[in-house]
């Protein structure tokens, strides 16, 4: 879905191309339980919710402003299978139904704890991470190597043409790492 | 969907990341009539068919080997709303139901004729092109500029980590231009 | 040389990585006659002048503000083998010593005329173009194909880490096409 | 300098664009002492030697085949200010004149030891690293962060057009990280 369909505020939003590739890697089933950790504006949560009509999406977000935006976007798209959980993961994950699909857009510095919690008793779990800093990339790669996990790591770089007078000029967007653990 | 799910043969196949972004740009509705021109292995046709349960996909492909692969992939995924049309576009397009969504993966050198045919009497039509040569990019950009069309042009470059011993090394894939006309 | 060494004003400047690759493709000899067409701030002219101690660089620039900056940068680096030519190419090229190396950073829409003039009676000439719009890329590729010229075409994309708190985040720069005709 | 000018054998060679950017970041002075650690075919050593006519380049390489290639390339270009040191760094660095410029193309897994040795008593030292694996990137970024070093980190991705019949198709090369410590 196009970025401009979402209500955004000042919270950073996953770009449409990154969202498309990430959700394609996530491969949710119609009845999947999906966690969206660091849900931001909820753009991934909303698209995921539409992909799991008989499933449920849990959107975890620390910032109150983010939780408010997720609620607004869910309402805008008439989403009924989305639960917003405010607070800091992994604490907020406890006691909820186990997921079979997890998208992690941000971890607030808690990546190993969150991954530990998710991986402890979940076979068949698929996790997709979006990573934009070299330090988080390091953390993810070290985690994968230390536990000898199967993972696909890609770097995605999009440039988008901008019209300058009668010319199209390519504007580079920031590269992002998309990591799939399965 | 992952590339390895498809039967491939020797026909070049759109990579999963490019397919995900292209279909996301195409935004098919559940009842859309979708054309897949230069359908190759049918990977886009199959994914599109799953996205339009009440619609229909027409896969246009010149090569008999390609048509055979599309049929095999459609059968593998139990697709029932996909029609394979053998031969050279735009001739093969005539007489079929008008599409509201068109994906063009290849034009066999006939891009302007195909676009002319598609755009002549279709309001509300959305077209997504995948372009890998500078000459086809040239043709598409010139076409867009001459007719003053609204278009989004992006360049997408994916690098994928390959495991070399205990190291992950990023391998660059070929960049592709994804052009959306609407 | 680092970008911050140059006086810049409001004129767009070739970035250091692009300058390094472009000058490496240009392969000037110590006694080369180098043209820098669309010289902007003169950053390429200055670096080229340092590479041709027994040669001469001609910096062609339309904008008076650009010519002034080139003069300032030449003075800053103590360059003595650099001639600034104000006005619009290809007219301004006439009557000057024939070059063996030409860098083209901008053509003011006159690319075919400039290339025609340069290529008419120059064997052994090497030309490097920097191109940032799809329309100029088209013009260059069409020119190369129509005249069946030998050319190398690369796309260069640089991302640079920016420090955000204690994290390094990669920022995508705009991709550029570097075309070498020889 | 173009890649095809060098004798290569089976040793991986830094590509010309990466070499150009790396040497531009290294900014050697005419009298610099340059170390090239993990010198491979010697392409960086040779270009650096030409840039420091009153200086000296030390090429450190573990593989005998590499040392032989460096010698051949030095001879081919008539280089006289290049010393080849066989063996494993940092041991091989000891007792040699202190460098003011160091290029590191490979560390054989010894990056922190090599950096520790180089940085212990060298003010004004500039180091440029080329890194292609995520694990080495991790090591470099961690090293920089732990010691609070000033560093520039870029990712460079080149695509090169290949002629397929009468079409130019961009082929993606592998991305590389170029890290400058100063």
What does this structure look like?
- The structure is a homotetramer of 182-residue chains.
- The first copy, chain A, has five helices and eight strands.
- Chain A is globular and about 55 Å long.
- In chain A, strand 4, helix 4 and strand 5 (126-131) form a beta-alpha-beta unit.
- Chain A is α/β, with parallel strands linked by helices and 182 residues long.
- The longest helix of chain A is centred in the middle third of the chain and has 13 residues, at 64-76.
- Chain A has an eight-stranded mixed sheet with strand order 3-2-1-4-5-8-6-7, with helices on both faces.
- The interface between A and C is medium-sized, with 19 and 19 residues.
- Strand 6 of chain C pairs antiparallel with strand 6 (151-164) of chain D, so a sheet runs across the interface.
Low-confidence stretches of chain A: none
Largest sheet of chain A: 8 strands, mixed
Counting DSSP E segments of at least 2 residues, the number of strands of chain A comes to 8
Write down the oligomeric state: homotetramer
The structure class of chain A reads alpha/beta
Report, as a whole number of angstroms, the end-to-end distance of chain A.
25 Å
Q: Tell me the radius of gyration of chain A.
A: 16 Å
Strand fraction of chain A: 25-35%
Helix content of chain A: 25-40%
* Main interface by residue count: A-B, 25 and 25 residues
Q: Kindly report the average pLDDT value of chain A.
A: 95
Cross-sheet strand order for the largest sheet of chain A: 3-2-1-4-5-8-6-7
What sort of overall outline of chain A do the alpha carbons produce when their principal axes are compared?
A: globular
Elements of chain A, N to C (H/E): HEHEHEEHEHEEE
* Number of helices, where a helix is a run of at least 4 consecutive DSSP H or I residues of chain A: 5
């Amino acid at each position: 879905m196009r970025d401009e369909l979402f209500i955004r505020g000042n919270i950073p939003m996953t770009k449409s191309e990154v969202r498309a590739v990430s959700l394609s890697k996530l491969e949710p089933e119609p009845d999947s339980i999906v966690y969206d950790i660091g849900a931001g504006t909820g753009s991934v949560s909303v698209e995921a919710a539409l992909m799991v009509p008989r499933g449920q999406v849990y959107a975890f977000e620390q910032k109150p402003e983010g939780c408010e935006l997720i609620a607004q976007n869910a309402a805008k798209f008439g989403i009924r299978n989305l639960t917003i959980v405010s607070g800091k993961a992994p604490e907020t994950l406890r006691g909820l139904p186990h997921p079979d699909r997890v998208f992690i857009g941000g971890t607030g510095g808690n990546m190993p704890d969150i991954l530990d919690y998710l991986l402890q008793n979940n076979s068949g779990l698929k996790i997709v991470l979006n990573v934009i800093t070299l330090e988080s990339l390091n953390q993810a790669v070290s985690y994968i190597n230390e536990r000898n996990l199967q993972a696909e790591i890609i770097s995605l770089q999009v440039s988008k043409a901008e019209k300058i007078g009668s010319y199209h000029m390519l504007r580079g967007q920031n590269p992002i790492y998309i990591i799939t653990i399965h």
